[in-house]
Structures are given as structure tokens and as C-alpha cells.
Amino acid sequence: MGVNDFDANQEKLVQKAYDLMAEEYDILDDRINPFYVNDCKFLDHFVQRLLPHWRGQIVLDVGCGSGLQTVQFASRAKHVIAVDISGELMRKVQEKLKPQGLTNATLIQGNATQLPLQDSSVDFVSAYGDVIGHIPDYVRAIAEMARVCRPGGTVTIEYDNKWHLGLLFHPADLWNALTTRRKGDLRRWTYEYLNHDSKVDLTYKTFTFPEMKSHLNRHGLVVTERAGMHILSSLIPEHIQDPPKEKHPLKAYTVKFLQAIAQCDFRLKQRSPFYRLAYSAIVVARKL
Ligand SMILES: C[S@@+](CC[C@H](N)C(=O)[O-])C[C@H]1O[C@@H](n2cnc3c(N)ncnc32)[C@H](O)[C@@H]1O
Predict the structure, then answer these.
(1) Beta strands 105-109 and 79-84: pairing type?
(2) pTM to 2 decimals?
(3) Are 287 and 221 spatial neighbours (Cβ–Cβ below 8 Å)?
(4) Alpha-carbon distance 189 to 136, whole Å?
(5) In total, how many domains does the chain have?
(6) In the sheet that 221-229 helps form, which strands lie side by side, from edge to edge?
(7) What is the residue range of 47's domain?
(8) DSSP state of 22
(9) What is the band of 3 on the pLDDT scale with cuts at 50, 70, 90?
(10) How distant, in Å, are the alpha carbons of 64, 225, 275 from that of 186?
(11) Ligand 1 touching residue 157 (CB < 6 A)
(12) Mutation test of ligand 1: which of 11, 28, 60, 134 has the most ligand atoms closer than 8 Å to its C-beta?
């Protein structure tokens, strides 16, 4: 459903929603949440692909969530600073780092729009998992990531793409997209908790690539790479790839089918025009 503005309490709502999600955040099961599983596999791939940019370096993980990327960074980076608005998720990061003996991480519960870091103090900044789309003042968050990144360093962001094939199933969103000119629009995401009998509605912002590129350019960040995630899979109705609880677990053949589509998406990730129609996008940028 299209919406006109972020709720005035967006940051509090986001914090509360993710605090409540913390206990189930790491449930990654093809029969329960295949969309999320494929998402995580893709992000893991990108983290590893960008290894030459962050190995032995200082990494900032913005909106680190439960630490799915933080732990990978900590294993090969010099130091990782992980920031998230949700205190409960930050506890999950600590629980992952400790058993692995990873002591090179600083965890900060805070807002991406006010990073408590010096200018040019980190080499690599990552904000994966549509962190940017949750933030009403996303312009300030991008400015903050650019400010703390040193010249020659890398900033990589994953965001929700305005135009994707799945819009064909959502006439209201499609209409909202068509009537919002030259930039992304606001949409509503309903998350059904696995461990609680409740749902939460969160507003998120989508971006077009030219819009994201211009925000990055304005802060001295030049795009060097771009990719798309969930391309053909966005044509599969949501109730199949993000099934409601009563449909758990998915049938084995459905899981196999979704895995095969995810493989195709993986091959298409950097092929034009396919990546332009992906549900979400990754950009990699270099700080001038
Ligand atoms: C979908 S999760 C992604 C987490 C992690 N990067 C991953 O891929 O699993 C989005 C994260 O952004 C965080 N977040 C949202 N708004 C934020 C803000 N203003 N400042 C810091 N973190 C924020 C949320 O708490 C949540 O953990």
C-alpha cells in the first residue's frame, strides 16, 4: 500500500519492531522464510566479494541487526564498529561474537543519522538489509556514512528498488510509484512475528538508481558497482516466498522451485536490463 509520509514516531516504531524481532531474527529456514534466506545468501556473497576492500581495515556496519554481516567482518577486519537503533538486536551481535572469540568489535546502540565517529575514521562502510529505507532522514544518514569514510574508502548500501516486477501484483503501489515522479516512494511492509501472535506495519522508502546515485555523488561518493537481488523471484506472489504462518512449512517442491529461481536471479544480478527490475539493489561507491 502506498503511503504519503513516514510516521512522526518512525524511529521509535522501528526500534520497538526490531527489538521484538530479535529472538527470531536468526531463523533462516527455506521452508519458513525463503525470501529472507535468499536475501541473506546474496548479502553474504557480496560481503565476501568485497573482502579486498575491508580485509585488515576498519569497518563500520550501519544497521547491523543481529550481526549477520558484523561477524563476517570481524573475522577478517582489523576492527568493526557496529551501530543499530535496536538494543535487543545488539545483544544478539554480542552473543555471536563471544563464542567465536572475536574481540575486535565495538557495538554502539545509536542512530545512523548521528554516528559518534570522527570524520574519515573508517575504511569501509556497509549498510545492508534495507537499513536506509527505514530512516526518515536518509539524506543525513548517507551524509554521515560519507563523512566518516576516509578518501579512497568504500561505502556499500543495499536499498529497496522503486521499480520491480512484483509491482504488477500490487496495483496500489504501482499507482503510487507512477504518480511519484523522479524519486522513490513510500511503502508499507507488514511483518508477522513468528514467536508472537502479532504483526507490525512499517513504512519504508524505495529509491531509483539515479536518485541514490545523486545522493551519493553529493557527498563525494562515486558508484563503482551495482547489482540487483530478487529479480525473477519478485514475480512469485508474496504468499509463496514470504508465507504466512499457517502455510509453514512450505512443501519440498515449492522450496526446490524457489531455490532454482534464486539461482537464476544470482546469475542475472549484474546483467542489464534485469538488475534494473530487481526488488532490491546493492551499490558500491568509492569516496573521492
Ligand atoms: C532489515 S534489518 C538489517 C540488519 C542487518 N544488516 C542484516 O542484513 O541482517 C534493518 C536494521 O536497520 C536498523 N535501523 C533502522 N533504522 C535505523 C537507524 N535510524 N539507525 C540505526 N539503525 C537503524 C534496524 O534496527 C534493523 O536492525
Answers:
(1) parallel
(2) 0.97
(3) yes
(4) 15
(5) 1
(6) 105-109, 79-84, 58-62, 122-127, 149-160, 280-287, 221-229
(7) 2-287
(8) G
(9) confident
(10) 22, 25, 21
(11) no
(12) 134
pLDDT digits (tens, 9 = 90+) for 98-157: 999 999 999 999 999 999 999 999 999 999 999 999 999 999 999 999 999 999 999 999
173: domain CATH number is 3.40.50.150
The residue nearest atom 8 of ligand 1, judged by CA position, is: 129
| Angle, helices 252-268/34-49, rounded to nearest 10 degrees | 30
Q: Whose CA is nearest to atom 13 of ligand 1?
A: 63
Distances in Å between the Cα of 95 and the Cα atoms of 44, 99, 150 are 19, 7, 30
Ligand 1 centroid to residue 101 C-alpha, Å: 24
Which residues are paired to 284 by β-bridges? 156, 225
Q: Is 30 a pocket residue for ligand 1 (Cβ < 6 Å)?
A: no
For 102-137, the DSSP string reads ---EEEEE--TTS--S-TT-EEEEEE-SSTGGG-TT
Length of the chain measured in residues: 288
Distance from the first to the final alpha carbon of the chain: 38
- Establish whether residue 89 lines the binding site of ligand 1, counting it when its CB lies within 6 angstroms of any ligand atom: yes
User: Does residue 203's CB lie within 6 angstroms of at least one atom of ligand 1?
Assistant: no
CA of 133 to the centre of ligand 1 (A): 9
C-alpha cell at 13: 516504531
HSE of 187, CA atoms in CB hemisphere, 13 A: 24
Confidence band (pLDDT; 50, 70, 90) for 228? very high
Integer-rounded Cα Rg, in Å, for the chain is 18
HSE toward the beta carbon, residue 143, CA cutoff 13 A: 7
